[in-house]
Amino acid sequence: THITGANTFSVRLPAAILSVVPIGITFALGKRMFDQKTGIVAALLLSLTPGNVASGVMMTIDAPFLCCWSIALYGYWRMLERDSNRLLWSMVTVLAVGTGLLFKQTMLAFPVLAGTFALVSAPDRQEWRRPSFWLTGLSALGFLAPLLWWNVQHDWITFEHTGDHFARQHASTLRRIAVSAEFLASQFGLLSPVTYSLLGCCLFLSWKNMRKIERREAYLLCFFAPPIACVLLLSLTQRVEANWPAPFYASAIVLLAAAVMDQLACIRLPKEALQRSLAVGCVSILITYALPFVI
Fold this sequence. Notes:
The protein has 295 residues and is mainly α. Helix 4 packs antiparallel against helix 5, helix 5 runs parallel beside helix 7 and helix 10 packs across helix 11. The longest helix is centred in the first third of the chain and has 26 residues.
């Protein structure tokens, strides 16, 4: 606002710029893990989601947070390639995770999921014995130091605020099911109905063909399936905001793109599904853009 003035355009401009970064990173990850066509499809699927459009027009912490998450997702995969650039990608991962922690505590899930993948993936279990693996994680968590120091001086207000989100809410079983169904409905709106349905198919097929899951699929699933399951269970106990699981869809979109491009052994979806997803996605984002003028 100091350069362009205190106006709506100036406030929302960073969100618009930052919302493009995850699309580019999604393309890069899809291309790196599979091929260029998969990367393009993944970028298209992400760009045609109402959630991505919303994050680009509303200046909230979600835009920079999702940007950090997607960079960390790419950086960690490159780090696990264990080539001559490992140190560089370790630093990228540290900066992305650390900066993301300053935006949103949800970023704490990233080190947990990263460690989970290194545990379940046989070729990557050796990471637990590498000092650089531990140093990467601890360095990223070191970014919490300013936040913890500020909380010490302000009666741990952040922890109190976070605790309010997870406070137990007394409600009937029917009410809990209704709240959970409301959350599920919001996810159809966040990603578009067809895209979200296809992600559900991906989860089911990956569970059905678990023995065929390879390293690439395992990586994408680790950053998607466990946290989504946790959020769904949480929605049965309390009201969950629609944007809470947003970062977990970063890897899911790449997984879906690989499935429709016939790149996976455990998950295969017809290309007609991709056409429907893109078509419905186009309609969904047009409706999203039109809503401010209608309401």
